[in-house]
């Protein structure tokens, strides 16, 4: 198990660019943490969701989609996280993160250079040359010979200056050493920070940025994982979509929708057959949709085919298709599967006031306190029956007092204590059940990252004035400045 490390300059640059404060070091059980914040200049990108010279990759799309899936209803992930996410109540529903190709390139370069030059930190361990925007990744992969001035590992380049080569800056960064995108994401999201304070800290920095950062994101995966947050060049109605695992007979296919109204159809075309997607998290206007594709073999092409409330078609990627399969199956291709069975789905809400319209769209929502039944009607659930006192197996003591009045609660004795773990060290859910490594239960990826969660991770939030602190083997706090960096 590697030590965790966290560095941060607190206070977003767009509020107090010249103020910072140092946070206390906290010991952490997993990985390596560092967080930064500053403002990224908007950038331009090709047609949304398309691949541009290999950007983004399948793994990068997964980390992007998992972030948006968590943002539409943070309470789901926070419940699974349990006592480790002490500030869980602080997170509210948030707009999605939108893709930025410049941030994607900056993030992947950082993952690459850390592998090539064998270091793990936010600041690059040399003075980077200014030509990387044109040489990476075609003729330079991050080696010192081509990435560093004079070809030598000497000096350093700050987080903000490095991202600025591609994107003009960033509002935050997170890094992790996990090789699997699902494992790296949950290493970030489920980091141990039991403190309930609603503020960014060295202990909760990854989670805070994932659930509150943005509006733009670029994840970069090349051995290590890096996430750079900043500006968003465009904001389409399908902000992200991907599948997990990469290949298999059965995979989960997820996409997010964000608009002032819910989609009138939410389909995914898998190999020429369109299947309705189910709203699984969030609301019709800001939600995550799921379809489980089964019976897959070889390389299967797919794309998301939604219609907005006016009936206009919205696809992700904008053109072409994504691929389910091994490394030989292109993540993105300019070709698309034909529109076959189910692709001309006609929504039907006859006799229904709520629920699915048969095409992934909605027939309406129920009022607070109501639920939608199988027939598509909003009903008020009956109150739960009084279960009476819990049988503890201990005979009551005759105190001579009258029997207790019904209506009080009795201990069930079944809840796990806060912070409890399973015999293998896994987290224990609020009902005493053991959570899998991905934090999953029904509707989440079934694969478990295993040893990936034992890797390192880092997050950083940038502000203004220089201040820093670093400790090996525990979390550390780094302050970044545009002119100097000091250790204490």
* Helix/sheet category: alpha+beta
Cα end-to-end separation: 26 Å
Question: How many beta-strand runs?
Answer: 17
Instruction: Give the amount of beta strand, in percent.
Output: 15-25%
Overall morphology: globular
**Low-confidence spans:** 1-45, 387-454, 464-488
Order of helices and strands: HHEHHHHEHHEEEEEEEEEEEEEEE
- Which percent range fits the helix content? 10-25%
Number of helices: 8
Rg, Cα atoms, Å: 24 Å
Topology:
Elements: H1 58-71, H2 74-81, E1 98-99, H3 101-117, H4 132-135, H5 144-147, H6 159-164, E2 172-176, H7 181-189, H8 205-212, E3 216-222, E4 224-230, E5 241-244, E6 250-258, E7 265-270, E8 273-276, E9 278-282, E10 286-294, E11 300-307, E12 313-316, E13 321-324, E14 332-333, E15 371-372, E16 378-379, E17 457-460
Parallel strand pairs: 1-3
Antiparallel strand pairs: 2-4, 2-17, 3-4, 5-6, 6-10, 7-8, 7-11, 9-10, 11-12, 11-13, 13-14, 15-16
Helix pairs in contact: 1-7
What does this entry look like structurally?
The protein has 488 residues and is α+β, with helices and mostly antiparallel strands. 14% of the residues lie in helices and 17% in strands. It has helices spanning 58-71, 74-81, 101-117, 132-135, 144-147, 159-164, 181-189, 205-212; strands at 98-99, 172-176, 216-222, 224-230, 241-244, 250-258, 265-270, 273-276, 278-282, 286-294, 300-307, 313-316, 321-324, 332-333, 371-372, 378-379, 457-460. The strands form 4 sheets. Strands 7, 8, 11, 12, 13 and 14 form a 6-stranded antiparallel β-sheet that branches. The chain has a 5-stranded mixed β-sheet with strand order 1-3-4-2-17. The chain has a 4-stranded antiparallel β-sheet with strand order 5-6-10-9, covered by helices on one side. A hairpin with a 2-residue loop joins strand 7 and strand 8 (273-276). The longest helix is centred in the N-terminal third of the chain and has 17 residues, at 101-117. The model is unreliable at 1-45, 387-454 and 464-488 (pLDDT under 50).
């Amino acid at each position: 198990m590697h030590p965790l490390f966290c560095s941060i300059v607190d206070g977003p640059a767009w509020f107090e660019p010249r103020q910072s404060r140092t946070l206390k070091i906290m010991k952490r059980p997993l990985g390596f943490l560092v967080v930064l914040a500053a403002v990224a200049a908007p950038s331009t990108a090709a047609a949304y969701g398309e691949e541009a010279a290999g950007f983004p990759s399948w793994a990068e799309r997964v980390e992007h989609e998992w972030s948006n899936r968590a943002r539409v209803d943070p309470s789901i992930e926070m419940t699974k996280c349990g006592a480790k996410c002490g500030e869980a109540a602080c997170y509210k529903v948030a707009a999605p993160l939108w893709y930025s190709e410049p941030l994607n390139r900056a993030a992947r370069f950082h993952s690459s250079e850390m592998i090539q030059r064998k270091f793990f930190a936010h600041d690059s361990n040399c003075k980077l040359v200014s030509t990387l925007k044109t040489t990476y990744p075609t003729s330079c992969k991050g080696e010192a010979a081509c990435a560093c001035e004079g070809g030598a590992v000497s000096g350093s380049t700050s987080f903000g200056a490095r991202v600025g080569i591609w994107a003009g800056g960033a509002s935050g960064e997170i890094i992790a050493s996990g090789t699997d995108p699902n494992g790296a994401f949950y290493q970030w999201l489920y980091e141990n920070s039991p403190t309930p304070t609603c503020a960014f800290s060295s202990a909760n920095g990854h989670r805070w940025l994932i659930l509150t950062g943005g509006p733009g994101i670029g994840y970069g995966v090349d051995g290590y994982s890096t996430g750079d947050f900043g500006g968003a060049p465009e904001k389409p109605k399908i902000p992200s979509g991907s599948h997990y695992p990469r290949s298999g007979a059965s995979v989960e296919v997820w996409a997010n929708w964000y608009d002032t109204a819910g989609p009138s159809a939410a389909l995914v075309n898998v190999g020429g057959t369109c299947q309705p997607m189910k709203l699984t998290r969030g609301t019709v206007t800001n939600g995550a949709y799921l379809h489980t594709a089964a019976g897959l073999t070889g390389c299967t092409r797919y794309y998301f085919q939604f219609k907005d409330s006016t009936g206009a078609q919205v696809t992700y990627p904008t053109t072409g298709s994504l691929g389910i399969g091994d490394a030989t199956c292109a993540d993105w291709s300019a070709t698309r599967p034909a529109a076959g069975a189910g692709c001309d789905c006609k929504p039907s809400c006859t006799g229904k006031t709520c629920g699915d319209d048969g095409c992934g769209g909605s027939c309406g929502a129920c009022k607070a306190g109501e639920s939608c039944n199988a027939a598509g009607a909003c009903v008020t659930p009956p109150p739960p029956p009084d279960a009476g006192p819990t049988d503890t197996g201990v005979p009551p003591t005759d105190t001579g007092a009258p029997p207790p009045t019904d209506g009080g609660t009795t201990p069930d004795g079944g809840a796990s204590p806060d912070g409890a773990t399973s015999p293998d060290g896994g987290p224990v859910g609020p009902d005493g059940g053991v959570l899998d490594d991905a934090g999953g239960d029904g509707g989440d990826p079934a694969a478990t990252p295993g040893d990936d969660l034992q890797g390192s991770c880092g997050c950083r939030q940038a502000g203004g004035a220089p201040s820093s602190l670093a400790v090996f083997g525990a979390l550390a706090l780094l302050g970044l400045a545009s002119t100097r960096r000091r250790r204490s």
